[in-house]
Amino acid sequence: MLLSRRFLVPLLLLLLLVLAAGATACTSGKDAEAAEESTDRNAAEQVAEEGTEEEEAVPVTLAVARRGRIEALLRATANLEAERQVQVYSQATGIVTRLAAEEGDHLRRGDLLVQLDDRQARSAVAKAESRLRRQRRETDRIERLWKKKLVSEQDFSEARYQLEQLELELADARRDLEYTSVRTPIDGTIAKRSVQLGERVQAGAPLFEIVDFDSLVARIFVPEKDLSRLALGQVGRISSRSLGKTVYSGRVQRISPVIDPATGTAKVTLAVGDQPGLRPGMYVDVALVTRVEEDAVLVPKQAVIYDRDRAWLFRIDDQQRAHKVEIEIELADRESVKPAAGIRAGDRLVTAGQTGLKEGARITEVPATSSGA
After folding, report:
1. pTM
2. Fewer beta carbons within 10 angstroms: which end of the chain, N or C?
3. Mean pLDDT of 63-73
4. Does domain 58-69+294-365 have CATH number 3.30.365.10?
5. For the domain with range 74-83+212-293, which CATH number is right: 3.40.50.1000, 1.10.3470.10, 3.30.460.20, 2.40.30.170?
């Protein structure tokens, strides 16, 4: 029996709705599967790409640890001084009749410097000698009479007293005559002349300054903690910026037995002596050699990184990877350090490019002159 038209139309509409919903569900499932497959494929491709990408290498400059000589140095500065440096003064008053020495002259002890007018002094000596001769004769005569009991003992004692006084007077006159000839009291070089020919000088006037260059010393002040490294006779190197690269030698002559409580240092005196170019008052650098090792493993100072009281560096292995090594510095000079342990001769060490370098990082070596370094 055929359905009536009134029920057929709604039934067709319902059938169409069911078919449309099924088609939509089918399409959504296929799209989701396709999207999931696309995501998995992209992830796999990304993993593959990451696996094939090379690790980036850090550019660094390298140096090789080597064996060599190293010295432990104690550095200080000083002004050179002459321990024997004297001012020569006039001990008499008179006119300068002769200048026997000039600035720069090297003299021996007792050499003549200045001669003063000595005529008055010579006359005084002659008069004293004359009076003394007369008194001696008189004393001899009175002694003979005293032995014969012809004069009293008091007369004889008075005569001897007068003789002693005249002997002292003659000694004074001869000393005044000697003062008119001014002589150098030490071996040395004339550093300054303060008198002119023909000038009248007074007793006590400065005439010359004399310096013994053989007594040249450098006095340095060493911290208390470093005194155990010092000993008499130790070699020191003396240099001055005004003299370029010339290096002079000195030796520890004295070590003060006391510590200055204000500075915590002790005075150490180095004998320098007369060496060409060195002058009293010159500012110099002093380097005392306190220890020497002839065959030590040496590391360039550029390789060492300091962090508070610790020191470390990067060593490179055969796979071009960096490894951080902490070291204890035993000796150091201007260019190198000697680690107490942990580094061997031939080890490759990073000297530039350590910033940002991490443990195990791959490196690539660049020359020291490269802009990358």
Report:
1. 0.62
2. N
3. 89
4. no
5. 2.40.30.170
